[in-house]
Amino acid sequence: MPAAPRNWKSHLTAVPWKSVGPCKGHGESLRALAEPSAAEQAQGEGDPAAAQLDVARLRSSSMEIREKGSEFLKEELYKAQKELKLKDEECERLSKVREQLEQELEELTASLFEEAHKMVREANMKQAASEKQLKEARGKIDMLQAEVTALKTLVITSTPASPNRELHPQLLSPTKAVPRKGHSRHKSTSSVLCPVVCPAAGHPLAPDKEGKEVDTTLFAEFQAWRESPSLDKTCPFLERVYREDVGPCLDFTMQELSALVRAAVEDNTLTIEPVASQTLPAVKMATVECSSANTCALSGLARACRHRIRLGDSESHYYISPSSRARITAVCNFFTYIRYIQQGLVRQDAEPMFWEVTRLRKEMSLAKLGFFPQEA
Is the distance from CB of 238 to CB of 225 less than 8 angstroms? Predict the structure, then answer.
C-alpha cells in the first residue's frame, strides 16, 4: 500500500511545469510544491530504510494491540471466572436446598407411613377388642338367661292383693287343706312361715308338715356360713358340699378336662352354647373344635351332643352330651345361688334359703346319677 503514493508522487514530479505569468508569488508556491516533491523523491530513493521503519512501527503497533487485547481478554476471563464462581455458589446453595427438601420429604413420608401403620394397628386392636367384647357379651347373655331361669324359682308369685293359696296353706279352708307332695320353698321374708328356730338358740328344730326334717348339723353349718358368706372351700358348709355333691357331679371320665371345667365353674367363666350357635354372623372369630359333635368330650361316650362348652377366654370348644350338660348346669345353679346370697340379693330367712340349697344339692345328686330333664 505505501508504494502507490510514491508512484503517484513520482508521477507528479515528472510533469513539467510552465510559467503562465510573471507573478512572483505564484512561482514561490510552485517551488514550495516542488520541494516536497523533491523530498518525496529523496524518500523514494531511501525506500529500504523507510520500509524497515514502517515494519518496526507495524510490529510495535501490533505488540501494543496484542498487549491491549491480552489485557482485555484477561479482564473478560476474570469476569467470566467470577461469574462462574457465583454460579457455582448458587448451584451449591440450590443443591443444599434440594437435599434438605428431599430429606424432609423422606422424613415426612416415613412419618406418614408410621402413622398409617399405627392407625391400622390401633384399628386392628380395637376390632379384636370389639370382637372379644362381643363374644363376652354373648357369653354373658347365655349366663344371664341361665340366671334368670334360676331366679324364676326365687320370685314371689303371690302378692297381698292376690295371694297364691298353694304357697300359703294357712289361707286354705280346713276341708281343702291337704298335704302336698314334695317340699315347698317359702320365699316370704315373714317369720310366721318359718316354724324352725335356730339351733344355736338351744331350741330343737320342728319337723316340716310336708314330711321334711331339717338336718341340724347341716343347718348349723349353713347358718355359720350365712353369717359370713364366702366362696372359701375350707369352711365346713362348702367343704361338705364340695365333697358330697360338687366333686362327684363334676367327676367325668376325662380327668384333665374335668379339672378345667371345675375351675371354670368356680371362677364363673364357663360358657355353654347350643351347637346351632355356629351359624352366628361371620364377625365372630373362627374357633377350634376339640371334639366331635357325636362324642362327648367329658365322658368319651358316643352321644348326640347338642351343646358345647368354652372355658374362659379360650377359643377351644368341647361338645358335651345332655347328661354332662345337666351335671354342669346343676353345679352352676348351686354356685349362682350361693353367689346371690353372698352378694345380698336373696332376702329370706335361714330356713327357706337352706331348703333351696338342699334342693340344688338334690339336683346335683340326681344329675350325678344320670337323671336329667328331656329337652323339647
Answer: yes
CA distances from 193 to 162, 187, 339 (A): 18, 9, 25
CA gap 319, 304 in Å, rounded: 9
Range scoring the smallest mean pLDDT among 6-15, 91-100, 209-218, 247-256: 6-15
Q: What is the pTM of this model?
A: 0.46
The interaxial angle of helices 3-14 and 24-45, nearest 10 deg, is: 140
Find cell 398409617 and name the residue.
116
Q: Which three cell numbers stand for residue 10?
A: 513520482
Output Rg (C-alpha) for the chain, integer angstroms. 63
Collapsing DSSP to helix, strand or coil, 122 comes out as helix
Sequence-ordered list of residues with C-beta below 8 angstroms from that of 105, at least 6 positions apart, any chain:
none
192 versus 64: which is more confidently predicted? 64
DSSP class of 21: S
- Structure confidence at residue 52 (pLDDT): 81
